[in-house]
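Database export, one record per block. Field names are fixed; values are copied verbatim from the stored entry.
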Amino acid sequence: MDKICNRIDQKLKTIRETGKKALILYITPGFPDIQTSQSIFEAVSKAGADIIEIGVPFSDPLADGPSIQKSSFHAIRQGVTLHKCIDFLKQIRSNDIDTPIIFMGYFNPILQYGLEAFTRDASDAGLDGLIVPDLPTEEAMPLNRACEPYDIEVIPLLAPTSTDARIKAACANARGFIYCISFTGVTGARRQISSNLSGLVNRIRKYTNLPIMIGFGISNRSHVKKMEMFADGVVVGSALVNIISEAPKGQEVNEAIKFVQHLKGN
């Protein structure tokens, strides 16, 4: 199912034209349960999330820290798979949610599903983008080719350790935006964020005109404001997962809304 124009591109174009910055949030389907995670998704979309990542649970999440590992393990125990994530996406779209949606997940489940079958089914469900942390640029071409007919944008990850050659290679086939990792290591909310990221962002800008988002470690409004000085937006994952995990039962949605409003400065 071809899209006339990818929702990610539409959203980021509008944000750039208005001089604002993007807020991207990460949600694990099935954490704390399917129905609540769906309600959280819809609530944070209305509260100001510009793009939402759906974290596909995986048994060996090498890029994820303790918070997302915990949420993924919980979801797996409830039977959440890549197929169930596609069903989750279908349900979200059936409720007239037009927010750009990205799957963030590892390559093995996609490979087991079948590249062509996955991209077809994910597109039919309403997927706009894909982030695969364990798929290096050198090996990404088969997935890129499978995604292209369905206008699913494969978004690369770049880190402070990335060389100029790797940045150039990753940017050559990138679509949507560039995901800039704020530090080497796994995901996780941090008290402090590196002040040297502007240099990495400037290096990346030499090779692409795509928006650059910074993720890993962003956990509060002060982090957001600091990153917005030189990047086009931020990705917040573990901090939102922590808010949901620590919320009293039945208050997960309200606490998620308040956290998004805090991040937005409302």
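Remark 1: Residues 185-190 have pLDDT under 50 and may be disordered.
Remark 2: Residues 16-264 form a domain with the TIM Barrel fold (CATH 3.20.20.70).
End of record.
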